[in-house]
Amino acid sequence: MSESTKAIASGAVREIEPELRELFTKVVEHDPREAAKMLEPYPDEFVVQMLELLNPSAALNILQRFDLARRQTILATASTETDRQWMRNQTYPERTIGRLMQPPLAVFRPQTTVAEATEQIRHLARKAIITYGFVTDDQNKLLGVVVMRDMLLAQSGQRLDEIMLANPFYLTPDMSLTDAMRAVLVRHYPVYPVCEKTGRLIGLLRGQMLFEAEAIELSAQPGAMVGVEREERLTTPWLRSLKFRHPWLQINLFCGLLAAVVVGLFQETIDHIIALAVFLPVLIGQAANTGVQALSVSLRGITLGDLRSGRESLLVVKEMLLGTFNGALTGVTGGIAMFIFATMIKSPAAVMLGFVVFLATTISCLISGVAGAMVPLVLKKLGTDPAMASSIVVTTFTDVGCLAVFLGLATIMI
CATH fold of 238-413, please? Predict the structure, then answer.
C-alpha cells in the first residue's frame, strides 16, 4: 500500500489499542492473501474495524481472501451502511471507480436549513472526515454540493439549495481508473460524488484514493510485463513468488527455443560464414530495442486514452516509418562494422556481409516496430491485459523475425 494510505490510516489507527497497531502496520504492508491470514485469528468486530480503515478496494481484496463462512460473519458484523457499500462495490469490475466507493455521508434535502445541516455534520464528524455536504431530491438524485466555507458564511435559517453549487461534477461507478484520472485532471477536489448515469448518488470517492489507486496501477505495469503478479510485494513469501513467476519463465523459455530452432535451420550457413555468428547478438539487441520503444508508446497511448477509435492506424504507420529509418541509419553503422570485421578476418565476402547487415537491420527494425505497435492493440481487442502479455509476444516476434531475415538473406546473397 502506498505511503499516502499509510499516512491517512495512521490517524485512524490511533483509535486501535496500542498493542495492535503493529498488526495494522503489517496488514497495510502485505498483499491481500497474507493480510487475511494475519486477521484470521481475530474476532469479527476487530476485522471490520481494521478493514474500515483501508480504502474500499483494498478492504474488498482482503475480505475476498477469507473463506465464505467467515466472510459472511464479517459482513454480518459490519454496520448496515458499510455492509451495503461493500456488497455494492463487489458488483463492479476491478480497477473501476465502483470498487473504491465509500458510503455517501452528509446527504441532505434541498429544504434543510444551514442550522439543521450543521448539527448533523457535528455528529457525523465524530466518526468520519466531512468535506462537502450533498443535496439530493427524494429519488436521491444529486442536485448540488455544499462547501463548508459557504455554510460558515451563510445565515443559519438559509436553505441549502440557496447556497449549494448546482449541477456538480461527478464520477460514474463503471468508469475505469484511467478515464477517471483524465476527467479529474483539471478538477483537483478532495472528494468526488459517485452517481449512476441517471444522477442518483450512490457513493463518494476521496481524491487521494483515486490518485493512489492509479499510482499502484501504473507501478504494477512494469512487473506485469515480465511475469510479476500485481499482488506481489517485498513481503510476499518466496514460494508464492515462485508460483507467480515460474510459469512466465517457462513460456519465455519456449519462445527462446523457437529462436534457437530458426538458428538451427541455418546452421550450415553459419558454419561457412563464422562472422554471422558474431553479429547475431548485435542485430537482435538493435531490433529488440526498436520493438520496446514502439511497445512503450503503444501502451502509453492505451493507458492515457490517446488511441481513440481510428487512431490505431496512425500509430502503426508512424512506428513503421520510425522502424525503417532507424533501422536504415543504424544498419549503415552496423554494415560498416561488419565490413571492417570481415576484412580483418580476411573474408572474401566482406562487402556483401556488410550489405546483408544493413538490409537485415532495416527489415528487422521495421518488423519489431510494427509488432511493438500492433501487439498491445490486438491483445486489448481480444480482452487480454496488454501490459501483461505484450512484452513476451513482441520479443518472440523480434527474435524469430530478426534471425530469419538475417540468416535468410545471408543464405540467399552470399
Answer: Tetracycline Repressor; domain 2 (1.10.357)
